[in-house]
């Protein structure tokens, strides 16, 4: 099977290289992100293998169809960057990795909570400079705090389990409540109740038209003053302009982001020698109570190995049978 691997980095090579022989794969490693200008790089390949910030819209799909691509293989769970209607119309299959390590993302989300609360990042910087004062580093006990978990799929379930261990009261919202979680003491409520009662809010839902800007000026207005918000799911779940206004007013006391609304072209690249042109992102960086990581919540050895193996298995199954258990319709 001939695969055009877009958005490749050294860690992608390291994960996929051991599988090339066993899957009889012929991989062309392409560092550029998939977009209209790079779509024809897939010429001569059956499969375009892509990542979270690749652009797979109708234009890109049509150009890849013209050069022989019949399958888009996502190295991620989300598929909001794919025009599924255009793919279906063109006869291009789409497969994804629905689960790779819910523990990786869940642990990162809780790590952001702990770091923001106890200000580990600021304390580390102070000690490096010989400043051992505690002023401005006061945190709070997680025990007894109310945490709202939006989305209780595999990642949300693990988050609930970890926070149960801290002795938190957990509220949850999901269109499909989980009876097993409810039996552990998780309280399913509507969004308005969750917003009103949560000290900490953590997002673990997919990006859909219904969840886009789930956190906006209206929902923020319903939250407690000083709320902590964590997003390790998809950037557009949050209206960044509304969040900046809430940070300025003090409505948001802590903000932890592993994803950003306009992260494509920014995350996964080294811009350390450049002036970042995204003024909104730069504004976010000025707040002392904001902690941003660059879409690394998934990034553990276990998760990356699972992504590579599942992706290759998806491709082989689709090419051999014309479908896959992980096909996205």
Explain what the structure shows.
The protein has 329 residues and is α/β, with parallel strands linked by helices. The chain has 2 domains: 2-100 and 301-321, NAD(P)-binding Rossmann-like Domain (Rossmann fold, 3-Layer(aba) Sandwich), CATH 3.40.50; 102-292, 3-Layer(aba) Sandwich (Rossmann fold). The chain is built from 12 helices and 12 strands. Strands 8-7-6-9-10-11-12 form a 7-stranded parallel β-sheet, sandwiched between helices. The longest helix is centred in the last third of the chain and has 21 residues, at 301-321. 40% of the residues are buried. The mean pLDDT is 96.
Q: Key features?
A:
329 residues, alpha/beta, Rossmann fold, five-stranded parallel beta sheet, 12 helices, 12 strands, globular
Summarize, please:
The chain contains twelve helices and twelve strands. With 329 residues, it is of the alpha/beta class. Helix 6 (154-166) links the parallel strand 6 and strand 7 (169-173).
What order do the helices and strands come in, and which of them pair?
Blueprint: E1 2-5, H1 10-16, E2 26-29, E3 47-50, H2 58-66, E4 71-74, H3 84-90, E5 93-95, H4 102-118, H5 120-128, E6 146-150, H6 154-166, E7 169-173, H7 179-183, E8 187-188, H8 191-197, E9 200-203, H9 217-221, E10 227-231, H10 240-249, E11 252-257, H11 279-285, E12 290-292, H12 301-321
Parallel strand pairs: 1-2, 1-3, 3-4, 4-5, 6-7, 6-9, 7-8, 9-10, 10-11, 11-12
Helix pairs in contact: 1-12, 2-3, 4-6
């Amino acid at each position: 099977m001939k695969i055009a691997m877009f958005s490749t980095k050294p860690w992608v090579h390291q994960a996929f290289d051991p599988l090339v022989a066993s899957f009889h794969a012929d991989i062309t490693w392409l560092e550029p992100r998939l977009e209209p200008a790079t779509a024809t790089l897939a010429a001569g390949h059956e499969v375009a293998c892509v990542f979270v910030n690749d652009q797979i819209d109708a234009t890109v799909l049509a150009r890849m169809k013209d050069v022989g691509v019949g399958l888009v293989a996502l190295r991620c769970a989300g598929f909001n960057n794919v025009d599924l209607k255009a793919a279906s119309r063109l006869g291009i299959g789409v497969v994804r990795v629905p689960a790779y390590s819910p523990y990786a993302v869940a642990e990162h989300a809780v790590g952001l909570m702990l770091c923001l609360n106890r200000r580990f990042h600021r304390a580390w910087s102070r000690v490096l400079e010989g400043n051992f004062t505690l002023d401005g580093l006061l945190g709070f006990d997680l025990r007894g705090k109310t945490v709202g978990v939006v989305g209780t799929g595999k990642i949300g379930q693990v988050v609930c389990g970890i926070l149960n261990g801290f002795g938190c009261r957990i509220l949850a919202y999901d269109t499909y409540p989980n009876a097993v979680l409810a039996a552990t003491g998780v309280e399913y409520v509507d969004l308005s109740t969750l917003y009103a009662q949560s000290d900490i809010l953590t997002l673990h839902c997919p990006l859909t038209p219904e969840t886009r800007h789930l956190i906006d000026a209206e929902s923020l207005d319903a939250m407690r003053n000083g709320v902590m918000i964590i997003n390790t799911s998809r950037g557009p779940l949050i209206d960044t302009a509304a969040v900046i206004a809430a940070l300025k007013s003090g409505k948001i006391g802590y903000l932890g982001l592993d994803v950003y609304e306009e992260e494509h072209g920014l995350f996964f690249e080294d811009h350390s020698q450049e002036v970042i042109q995204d003024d909104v992102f730069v504004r976010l960086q000025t707040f002392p109570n904001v902690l941003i990581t660059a879409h690394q919540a998934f990034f553990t050895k276990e998760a990356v190995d699972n992504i590579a193996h599942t992706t290759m298995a998806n491709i082989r199954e689709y090419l051999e049978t014309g479908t896959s258990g992980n096909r996205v319709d």
